[in-house]
Amino acid sequence: MRVYIELARRSFAQQFAYREATLAGLFTNSVFGIMLASVFLGLYQSRSGPVAGWSADETVRYVWINQSLLMVLFVWGWWEVAQTIRTGAIVTDLLKPIDYYAYWMARDVGRAGAQLIIRGMPTLAIGWVLFHLQFPTSPVRWVEFLVSIFFAVLVSFAFRFLINLATFWTIDYRGLSYASIVLVNLFSGLLLPLTFFPAWLLTIANLLPFRSLMMLPNEVLAGHRSPWSAYGLQIFWVVALSALAQLVMKRAEKKLVVQGG
Q1: What pTM did the predictor assign?
Q2: Which pLDDT does position 260 carry in this prediction?
Q3: Are residues 73 and 112 in contact, defined by beta-carbon separation less than 8 angstroms?
Q4: What is the pLDDT of residue 261?
């Protein structure tokens, strides 16, 4: 366990080295937060009450929470494992006397913790200043929210790791990248609360793991869902996706061929 804690700690520290990228990301998140929040405010101005159970204040807060979680969950563009597969560098990782899946998970948890501080909290603070966001005053609610974010990170990692492993069987992972982005954008609740969906599409969303990423943490913070219900669903997907990733990894190891053996 000590080695995984150290991996997480070093990954955490590494994230603070990219200051320019962090500032650029904050600017981008803020621009999209302003645009999306303004669109939803325009929607609510044409209505006299909540939409699908979400008030105007809750929906605007929802938008900014999603923007603050983008880099924490790293739902787009993580292909580090895929790159090691393409170059053959994965062999050196597999030779290390540690669990390969846990190795990458520890690194991702450390990365997510740092991103929560340097990207998540500042983005949410910008939204609070610009749109006077209303937040729960109960410390317990915030703890429940943070726990849900932790499980969301694990679900996100398991999904991303699994998609990366597909590189063993494909020449180029960019097609998978585009497909995964579409799925995450549509079914995670990134663009809008899933309860805004028509019933048939909501049923599909509820059967997929992506709800655990954005939607469940927001529901926990808003008090729209029991935290234990959210945790149960998130843990289910962590276990299911992790088990599938381990199975795929074992099959991939039998397929792995690199120059020299």
Answers
A1: 0.93
A2: 45
A3: yes
A4: 45
Tens digit of each residue's pLDDT (9 = 90 or more) over 73-87: 998 878 899 888 888
In this structure, are residues 44 and 51 in contact, taking their beta carbons and an 8 Å threshold? yes
Question: Mind spelling out the 3-state secondary structure of the chain?
Answer: CHHHHHHHHHHHHHHHHCHHHHHHHHHHHHHHHHHHHHHHHHHHHCCCCCECCECHHHHHHHHHHHHHHHHHHCCCCCCHHHHHHHHCCHHHHHCCCCCHHHHHHHHHHHHHHHHHHHHHHHHHHHHHHHHCCCCCCCHHHHHHHHHHHHHHHHHHHHHHHHHHHHHHCCCCCHHHHHHHHHHHHHHCCCCCCHHHCCHHHHHHHHCCHHHHCCHHHHHHHHCCCCHHHHHHHHHHHHHHHHHHHHHHHHHHHHHCCCCCC
Question: Based on the number of CB atoms within 10 Å of its own CB, is 199 exposed (0-12), middle (13-18) or buried (19 or more)?
Answer: exposed
Residue 130 token pair = 């610009």
**pLDDT grade for 257, boundaries at 50, 70 and 90:** low
Task: Supply 105's token pair.
Answer: 């998970």
Question: 10 Å Cβ neighbour count for 244?
Answer: 15
Q: What is d(CA 247, CA 261) in angstroms, rounded to the nearest whole number?
A: 23
Judge whether 177 and 93 are in contact, CB under 8 Å.
Answer: no
182 contacts: CB under 8 Å, gap ≥ 6? none
Q: Which residue has the higher pLDDT, 138 or 170?
A: 138
Whole-number pLDDT of residue 6: 94
Residue with token string 């991103």: 115
| Residue reference for tokens 């560098």 | 89
Structure tokens at 188: 């995670």
pLDDT bracket for residue 236 (50, 70, 90): very high
The neighbour count for residue 161, using CB atoms within 10 Å, is 25
pLDDT in tens, 24-34: 989 999 999 99
